[in-house]
Amino acid sequence: MALQLAFLGMGGIGRAMSKNLALQGNLKAPIIIWNRTLARAIDHSNQVGSNALVAESIQEAVFKSDIIWSSLGSQEAVLQCFDTILKENVKGKLFVECSTITPEVTDDLSQRVIEAGAEFVAMPVFGEPSMANAALLTCLPAGPAEPVKRVLPFLMGVVCRAVIDLSGEPPGTASHLKLVGNVLILQMIESVAEAHVLAEKTNLAAKHVHSMISSVFPGPFAIYSNRMTSGNYCAPEPLIAIGMIKEVADHVNNLAKQSGTELGAYKIACRHVDMAKKHAGVAGDVAGIYGAVRVESGLSFEN
Predict the structure, then answer these.
(1) pTM of the model
(2) How many other C-beta atoms can be found within 10 angstroms of the C-beta atom of residue 72?
(3) What is the pLDDT along the chain (303 residues), one digit of tens a residue?
(4) How would you list the strands of the sheet with 94-97, edge to edge?
(5) What does the radius of gyration of the chain's CA atoms come to, in whole angstroms?
(6) Alpha-carbon torsion 257, 262, 266, 268, what sign?
(7) Fold annotation for 175-296
(8) Any idea where the 6-phosphogluconate dehydrogenase NADP-binding domain is (predicted)?
(9) Is 79 exposed, middle or buried (0-12, 13-18, 19+ CB in 10 A)?
């Protein structure tokens, strides 16, 4: 019997992953997609074509599916969705949760799902939307070995380029690793922003800095360099909403406080996140860190 997949959440990562699952996942039936804003799911389905079907409710998406993936914009959204889901009969289903949430919430959610007779794999990912679209994510599946094994065929070459297999580890281990990785991500964006602002303030052409970054530090460094120099960090629709990044940063800072860890460079990046959020609102983009560094250096937020 062919497995039916569903994907909950049509943010930048969710759209990209569900598209790749639909087109590259060797599915025997169209993937079912759901989003709290129905129009967003319909628009995405139209772009994917006949390989995707829209569910009008989260209950419908879950009821019709065997494996249910989710990538949601906040911890609160994850909990709200699963509160609704777990009111229904979910016995025998497998949930693959890709959102960035705390280890404690991940483990608690996993326990609730298992107690309801279903299976749970925590699988946060590393990579921003353009990388997700090109199937260049790094996936972190964690949980009991058997359900992780069932997810693996949908990963390499379908939604990602690398897998850090945490089979047999508590699900929260994946969320823990994602939070630690966020320290590197935010500091990477901060370092690219500072380099570009220093160049501008000392009359070095941005194109030269971008060429250097692209050659020496390809990948995310180059992607964010392009977003800053092109002005895309001020685009009306963010690729990664700064409100979501602010929530993750709060989780990281709480983890550091609880463990007695001093994150000096990370605190600087967080200060610029707060400045960018104040300028552009929660719907601003994380690359707005560049705008914040510009303002601190006597330039305008926009380039």
Answers:
(1) 0.94
(2) 26
(3) 679 999 999 999 999 999 999 999 999 999 999 999 999 999 999 999 999 999 999 999 999 999 999 999 999 999 999 999 999 999 999 999 999 999 999 999 999 999 999 999 999 999 999 999 999 999 999 999 999 999 999 999 999 999 999 999 999 999 999 999 999 999 999 999 999 999 999 999 999 999 999 999 999 999 999 999 999 898 888 888 888 899 999 999 999 999 999 999 999 999 999 999 998 876 789 999 999 999 999 999 998
(4) 52-54, 31-34, 5-8, 67-70, 94-97, 119-122, 142-143, 166-167
(5) 20
(6) positive
(7) N-(1-d-carboxylethyl)-l-norvaline Dehydrogenase; domain 2 (1.10.1040)
(8) 5-156
(9) middle
Q: Is 37 helix (H, G, I), strand (E, B) or coil?
A: coil
Domain boundaries, the chain: 5-169, 175-296
Residue 67 contacts residue 3 (beta carbons within 8 Å): yes
Residue type, 103: P
DSSP 6: E
Q: How far is Cα 8 from Cα 264, in angstroms, rounded to an integer?
A: 36
**Superfamily of structural domain 5-169:** NAD(P)-binding Rossmann-like Domain (3.40.50.720)
Do 5-169 and 175-296 share a fold?
Answer: no
Distance CA 252, CA 231 (A): 28
178 in catalytic set: yes
The Cα 110–Cα 210 span in angstroms is 43
Whole-angstrom distance, CA of residue 19 vs CA of residue 47: 9
Sign of CA dihedral 36, 40, 42, 45: negative
